[in-house]
Amino acid sequence: MLTEEFWAQVAVPSKEEERWRSKDEGALFKRWRRTPAPVDSTPNTATSTPSAQPSELLKFLAINALELSAPASDALLKSRSSEWFQLAGHPGSLAPAGPGTVWKRRAAGDHPSHNPERDTYEALAACPHMRGVIPRYYRELEYGGERFIELQDLLHGFRDPHVMDIKMGTRTFLEDEVSNAHARGDLYEKMVRLDPNAPTETEHLARAVTKLRYMQFREERSSSAEQGFRIEAVKLPGQPPLTDLQNVREPHQLAATVARFLGKDERARRAIAARLREIRDQFERSDFFKTHEIVGSSIFIIYDDERVGAWLIDFAKTRRIPGGAYVNHRAPWQQGNHEEGFLYGLDRLIHTIETAKLPAQGEEAATEPDVLR
Ligand code: I3P
Questions:
Q1: Would you identify the family this protein belongs to, as annotated (predicted)?
Q2: Number of domains forming the structure of the chain
Q3: The pLDDT value given to residue 197
Q4: Does some domain include residue 279?
Q5: Confidence at residue 87, expressed as pLDDT on a 0 to 100 scale
Q6: What is the domain extent for residue 95?
């Protein structure tokens, strides 16, 4: 069972947390309550029993308090800052389209002719083996002068589900960052929030760190560097998402977090492990992944009382390996080999899920609603 001491050790106050804390808890909690909405009954979930269930307010990587049957509109897009909470990823990058789809904004800095995430979705959607392990890809579109891709809303049809977002890989930055000497104040601030002693004297003086420095600091401080994955966020039914998991590093901490996600649900554990093994099999056979590095991608896992699903998401930093070289996704990274450790991490994630000790029958599952207390 997870203790408050455990969470006190791993939990880190974030801006998001400060935002929640400044609000009335009761009013905030209402944002996660269920609202019935029309449902598309043809989701491409893995080991699921599709059935027409009331939709949740919890949406694909996001939770919103808006009516989801309306098409994406100015009102929906503009209101994201006050009404949206994303479980992980760049704030404001997702908006509900609906019903059953979301729009994802093109990554900042990407040119229309260089849109790796769109290209990756298109390539994987065209592959009979890979199309089942990603959200359904519909189209690219332009709206209000910005480019989006429209994707299946993975949460559509789940009932108040358990959700976990796991960032994959031992390396979470592109190799270009190695030569990027630009030091950033925002990353320094984030670093200090996690560990005031982490910056060097020079970095303290400059009040800035490079992106490479920050990303490697995050990898080392979390489980990314050692385990090849880190849990970015967990959402349990009826509770606000837990996103302050930056210090979850050791195998026992990962196991405890996974146990909290699974509760006593052995059925979910078995179905999720089977689905992840299926994703691994498809990934290993895929020609696309032999020739591409897949940096900063996530595995997104959802289950409720009836259905289980897991998908590969986030391809903004997927790149073809230059010079026709191959990657195996398990070898250690060296500058120039483009390995990112995705499969190294997936092996360990599957092991963690298979071996996490769940609360025994009759034993109380951890129920702390707020990890920071
Ligand atoms: C961010 C996280 C993102 C990364 C972002 C980091 O750190 O690693 O994946 O975006 O870089 O700040 P944290 O999780 O600690 O908030 P990319 O994956 O797009 O590089 P950014 O600040 O340059 O957007």
A1: Belongs to the inositol phosphokinase (IPK) family.
A2: 3
A3: 98
A4: yes
A5: 65
A6: 12-152
C-alpha 166 – ligand 1 centre gap (Å) = 14
304 and 166 share one domain: yes
Q: Which atom of ligand 1 is the closest one to the Cα of 174?
A: 20
Residues 206 and 240 in one domain: no
Protein residue with least CA distance to atom 6, ligand 1? 215
**96 preceded by a cis bond (ω within 30 of 0):** no
Q: Is residue 131 within 6 Å of ligand 1 at its C-beta?
A: no
Please tell me whether residues 258 and 368 are part of one structural domain.
Answer: yes
pLDDT for 66 equals 30
Do 181 and 248 reside in the same domain of the chain? no
Q: Is 320 in the pocket of ligand 1 (CB under 6 A)?
A: no
Q: For residues 143 and 141, what is the distance between their CA atoms, to the nearest angstrom?
A: 7
Residue nearest to atom 10 of ligand 1 (CA): 90
pTM of the model: 0.80
More confidently predicted of 254 and 157: 254
Lowest mean pLDDT among 1-15, 119-133, 239-253: 1-15
In a domain, 69, yes or no: yes
Burial of residue 134 (CB within 10 Å: 0-12, 13-18, 19+) is buried
**In this structure, is residue 242 part of a structural domain?**
yes
Distance 296 CA to ligand 1 centre (A): 9
- Note whether residue 300 is domain-resident: yes
Q: Are strands 58-59 and 308-313 parallel, antiparallel or unpaired?
A: unpaired
Residue 111 pLDDT > 80: no
Residues 49 and 189 in one domain: no
**How far, in Å, from the CA of 211 to the mean position of ligand 1?**
8
Mean pLDDT of 88-95: 74
Asked whether residue 116 falls in the same domain as residue 189, the answer is no
H/E run at residue 18: helix 15-21
| Contact criterion met (CB below 8 Å) for 308 and 278 | no
